[in-house]
Amino acid sequence: NSDRPLPIIASNEVLDRLLGVEMDDLLPKLKKMAEGRAKKQRDRDAKLGLNPAVEDTGLSLPAKAYLGSFVNTDWGTIKLVLDKGMLVGFMGDLPMDLASSGIDTFSAFHNIGSPQLGRFEVSDSGVVTAIVAELEEAGGDVRFDRR
User: Fold this and answer.
1) Could you say which of 23, 60, 71, 78 would form a disulfide bridge with 12 (CB–CB 3.0 to 4.6 Å)?
2) Which residues is 98 bridged to in the sheet?
3) With 50 as the cut, is the pLDDT of residue 143 above it?
4) Is 3 a residue whose pLDDT tops 70?
5) Cα separation of 31 and 92, whole Å?
6) Which residues contact 37 (CB under 8 A, 6 or more apart)?
7) CA separation (Å) from 83 to 1, 25, 97?
8) φ, ψ for residue 12 (rounded to 5)?
9) Could you tell me if 99 and 107 are in contact, meaning their C-beta atoms sit under 8 angstroms apart?
10) CB contact at 8 A, 85 and 95
């Protein structure tokens, strides 16, 4: 993971807090890069109609049913919002653009690493109960339950 920015940010934070070594704050730069990339991706998805909220076969329920927070105690929180009619995810403060790969399945794009595959779990009663993400770093599926 040494080629990814988040471990560097975490290391800088540890050095700063524990040893008092002042390091550059990379998070604002990383956020700006992520926001720029996310906007480009949203624009591309809007043109191509790939976002699950606008793709005819993207979601099994209305987009509003997918909004909210989904939590995994080890991996954090994924928050889903609607932005200009597009379903957009956030992992912490970092935006993720979603592209449909079928009904209730998607690829999540962010500026760190490769796209992640995922799916929404929908109960028989029509409630989105979880997001299951295929995280390479975790060695398989990671479940984020609706909070």
Assistant:
1) 23
2) 108
3) yes
4) no
5) 11
6) 109, 110, 111
7) 31, 28, 11
8) -60, -40
9) yes
10) no
| Rounded Cα gap, residues 123 and 29, in angstroms | 40
Cα–Cα distance, 80 to 86 (Å, whole number):
10
CB-count burial class (<10 Å; 0-12, 13-18, 19+) for 37 = middle
Q: Which pLDDT score, from 0 to 100, does residue 13 have?
A: 79
- DSSP of 30-74: HHHHHHHHHHHHHHHHHHHT-STTTSTTT-SS-GGGG-EEEEETT
Whole-angstrom Cα distance, residue 79 to residue 92?
A: 8
Residue with tokens 């790969």: 101
Q: Is this model's pTM higher than 0.85 or not?
A: no
Q: Residue 96 pairs with which residues in a beta bridge? A: 89
CA dist 105 and 121 (Å) reads 9
